[in-house]
Structures are given as C-alpha cells and as structure tokens.
User: Fold this.
Amino acid sequence: MSSSKQATKPGIPNHVGIVMDGNGRWAKSQGKVRLEGHKKGADVARQVVRWAQKLGIRHISLYAFSTENWDRPKLEVRALMGLLAMMLPKTLPEMKENGVRFRVLGDISPLPAKARKAVEQACAETCDNSAIDLILCLNYGGQQEIVAGVQQTVKWLESQSDSEKALAELTPETFRSMLWRHDMAPVDLLIRTGGECRISNFHLWDAAYAELYFSDLFWPDFTENDLQIAVEDYAARERRFGKTSEQVCR
Ligand code: FPP
Assistant:
C-alpha cells in the first residue's frame, strides 16, 4: 500500500503547495457573483487531491484562507466559512475511501464554530490514513507562522541550562522545528494560479528552496492536465540547493 511516508517517485514532487487564485475573476468572466467562483474553486480543490494522488504526490497543501483574507467584505468571509463547513463533511467519505489524511496549517481558533468543528472532525476521522496528506491552510500566514516560531524559540531557550550557547548554536533545522509546519514535509513545488507572480505569505519558510510555478489560468479552470504540465515542468528543473550543477549531477 502506498504511504504518505514512503519515498516519492523520481521527478515527482513530494509536497505540492497551491495558491488557488482567480475565483473572483473567473466568476466575473462568467457573469456570476464571487461566491460562485469560490464554489467552483472548492470543487476543483476537491478534485486536485485525487489528481495529485494519481501522479504519486504524497502531500498537497491548499491555501484556502489567509490571515489577510479576514479583511475581505464580511459577506464574502462568511460565505467562505459557510462553504468550508458545508464542503468538508460532504467530502469526508471520499477522503476516507481514498486514504486521504486531512490536516490543517494555520490557527483555526478564530474560525466560526461550525467551520472549526468540521475541520476538527475531518482531522480526527482521517488521522490514520496514509495514501496522501491534504493540508488545508486556513487562517494561515507565513509571517505569522515565523513570529509564532520565534515565540516558541524564546520559550525553548529559556528552558535551556545555557541559553546563550543554545541561541548561538540555533540552526535553520532547529528553528523549523519551532514552526507550525514542523512535522510536515518541506514544499517542493509551489504553484500559483490566477496570473499573479507572488507568494502572498504562503509557505514562507519552505519557499527558500521550493520550485515556483505560475499559471495564468483562473483556479476554477485548472485541470488534471494542468497539474500534470506543472509537475513535468518541475521534473525538468535542476534543484541545486546552492551547490553546483556538477555536484548535484554526480
Ligand atoms: C483566491 O481567489 C481564492 C481564495 C481567497 C479562496 C480560495 C478558496 C477556495 C478555492 C474554495 C475552497 C476554500 C474554502 C474555504 C471552502 P480570489 O477570490 O482572490 O480571486 P480573484 O483574485 O480573481 O478575485
């Protein structure tokens, strides 16, 4: 049986993160209201997990709601939270059937109770699955995650007998262990749809060495073939992590 802990096939990214941008513009282009774009986007989000699984991707994270998205019109925020509370229980049987382990990245404590409970239920009922990890990023912000990591690090330093020495010896690996994502695989491929070429506070720490892929498509138009093309593009790249080409090709 495949496991999210097993090695990924060569050329296939182990963890793909997606900024699902363009729902609003898609709706506008169809003469529909923004919520219709989010609904269609949520349906593509459901399908992309299956597409990723077919390609052999072990972890997929989807940016569903950023820390900055609270600043959208109240009606849209409410609609997104309502969509989450409705979609998750509906998708749960499919996730269980396909061995999807549902996880969350971000602080879900400020979410409306119904949405929060749906998230907690999906996490609890899929925690033993191992075919693929679906990480839904909710009330997530990369900067906020790093600040929380600094706060965690300060607490850890205070607990050390020689805190000055511990601080001097702090490595990026130790610091990553203080982040919300500490037990999640690093992001290999970061995809953004919607034509904008920016990261928008997504996976800031892992973005250091993630491969970036930007698509002009609006998220609701993104298909299985488009994911395949993005993965093929990734497979053709040389990840050097600061080394020379000769070193990594040996
Ligand atoms: C960005 O498009 C999209 C979002 C802020 C939300 C993404 C949400 C989904 C795909 C639905 C699934 C998520 C939940 C919470 C059920 P945009 O609205 O910024 O599009 P625009 O740039 O064209 O306006």
User: Anything to note?
Assistant: Residues 20-25, 38, 41-42, 45, 64-65, 69, 80, 83-84, 87, 194, 219 surround farnesyl diphosphate (CB under 6 Å). Residues 74-97 form the longest helix (24 residues). The chain has two domains: 15-140+185-236, 142-180. The chain has a mean pLDDT of 95.
